[in-house]
Task: structure prediction
Amino acid sequence: MNLAHPTIIAACIAALAVPALPANAQKLPDSPVRARAISLLGDERESILLGRLEPGRGYRLRISLLSQSSPAEGRVEARVGDGATLIQDSADRDVYHLETRFAPETRGPIRLHLTAAGGIDSGYQVRVEWQAEAEPRMARVEYIPSPNQNDRSRAAKLNAIVVHATVTPTTEATVDWFLTPKSQVSAHYVVGRDGRIVQMVDDTARAWHAGVSELEGVKGVNDFSVGIEIVNLNDGKDPYTDAQYDAVAAIIRHIRDQYDVPDSRIVSHEFVARPPGRKSDPKGFDFPRLLRLARNPQ
Result:
């Protein structure tokens, strides 16, 4: 088996690699494998649509040369989008393959480009398989997906966290409301009084939590934030529990394992809601305490 030169392979994998799962994440089932088999003649180019892949999410890619018919040493080159070449150089056997991982930087149609070499009298049978890897989620967190979500915009970069109070008195009531399509609201996480965490929207997706909003001059905070709802009446008297502070701090650490979110961009719903004064939550919440716990868990 003769794959690409080791230096080329290493550079390509480094360019497309995605981080390992954070230590506090759990491995959920991967998506089904998608596959496509094609025939290529020498000097022919073929593009395979991999679909609208999620930016920042890891994908496994396997490219197999099932057979080749070439009077001379030939090769099949492959690249994802406009990125690095994944396979290059010649094979000295009829079967070889390469497996690697990549993470799209933007949302949109992603294509795999294959180019055959060796002249018009060369032929190749190639099989391509790709699969989305499980998204990192916090361990021991319930996952109940809300229908009230959509894709983030292509230009969005997750770099903020918005903390809310539910006003509803229980975790169950909040989850039920976020599961109701007519509510048109959701959050990434709901934190109960006992510290129970329910995730309702994946970190990579856009939850509908902030409404008309602005942060540091940028409107539409839902596009680039994670929303955390804390079960509390938001009357300034209902206390936030120690378990809630610990849980919200754990969520922040989980987000920071994947994204750069400075303390200055961990804010209240009241702070980002427009016009100013439209929202008041979370009343009475101790943000300095939260930020200390996020940095130094007890």
About this structure: The helical segments are 6-16, 171-178, 242-256, 269-272, 287-295. The longest helix spans residues 242-256.
